[in-house]
Design brief:
- The structure is a single chain.
- The protein is mainly α.
- It has a domain at 34-88.
- Helices cover 80% and strands 0% of the residues.
- It has helices at 7-27, 35-55, 60-87.
- Helix 1 packs parallel to helix 3 and helix 2 runs antiparallel to helix 3 (60-87).
- The longest helix has 28 residues, at 60-87.
Length: 88
């Protein structure tokens, strides 16, 4: 079974994004200078996962993981944007 994007690579990306957002929620490690870059990276991940989800056929575990990554990147983007507005 060949997959376009490997499941372990997507799992590593999901864990990385989740870990970064959890770490930032606890200690606020993403400063004002890094916030735009992190938001841009999350937007690119969300866009890539949306395009892959809609345009590239894959087995159901990979499709589910793509959907989870899409939601995770979108929520992370929203959380960082909300925190940026709060801090001013």
């Amino acid at each position: 079974m060949t997959w376009t994007l490997s499941l372990p690579a997507l799992l590593a990306l999901a864990w990385g994004i989740g870990g970064l957002l959890a770490w930032d929620a606890r200690r606020q490690v993403i400063g004002a200078a890094q916030r735009p870059w992190t938001m841009a990276a999350l937007a690119l991940v969300a866009l890539a996962m949306a395009l892959a989800l809609l345009g590239v056929p894959a087995p159901w575990p990979e499709q589910v993981l793509r959907g989870v990554l899409l939601v995770e990147a979108g929520v992370g983007l929203a959380l960082l944007a909300r925190r940026g507005r709060r801090r001013g």
